[in-house]
Amino acid sequence: MQSMYMHTKMELRLLSRDIIGLFFVFIMPALCFYFFGKLFETQHAEDMQYFNQYIPGMIGIVLFTAGFFIVGLQAVIDREKGVYKRLIGTPVRSVLILQAMVIKGMLAVVVGSLEIILIGRLGLNAPIELNVAQFVLSMLLAASAFISVGFIVARFFHRFHSAMAIGFVTLYPMLFLSGATIPIDSLPSSLKTVSLFIPLRYAVHLLQNGWAGKLFTSSSTWDAVVLGAILVLGIILGRNFYKWDRA
């Protein structure tokens, strides 16, 4: 337990110095949320139920950025610096590093999600009407899946610049084609087809169902299957990645 605490403390210290991760998890989603919220507020002020879809959607962006930029990018940086190779032959257990990274990612998700909710309530005067239990369950599955995406990124990209480039390339489709900022129904038919291949689409829809108390309905089944498959893949690759003899 003491080792777990020390490794988690170290990861949180690294997070406090991670300008890129802090920006993409706590600043960029908050600014986008406030901007699009104000834009909607001036155009459709009478339909405040929009926020019951929009808030969980933007929380989905937090999940993606936390998994990619805080977990995945940090793992790539550590490998590029040779951190894992230096751990070969030491008594440090790889599973402790893996667990500390997961805890760091989950804490970032919780803080980022609370930030979005507070901005919605205090900054945009949005109604906060959610099923807390179902939303927490949906967020646990979605957050776990996207933290595992970080390990998938770390498994296939060995250099910071290549991983960062992929992050920028995937960020905009995740932002605009997942239903997080623009409802899927508002997209042209061609982009609706493209959105089927955007993993965040399924997380956003699951979060929206959890928020509305519709988590245990048939409309959530495919979302859970897709996210579950991503989670399993991430666990397999993460276990392989955090073996010092393969770092």
From TrEMBL:
Occurrences of domain ABC transmembrane type-2 (ranges): 20-245
Protein family per UniProt: Belongs to the ABC-2 integral membrane protein family.
Name this polypeptide is given: Transport permease protein
Chief site of localization: membrane
Location within or outside the cell: Cell membrane; Membrane
Taxonomic source organism: Paenibacillus terricola
Keywords: Cell membrane, Membrane, Transmembrane, Transmembrane helix, Transport
Segments traversing the membrane: 20-37, 57-76, 96-120, 132-153, 165-184, 224-242
Topological type in the membrane: Multi-pass membrane protein
Keyword match Transport: yes
Keyword Transmembrane: yes
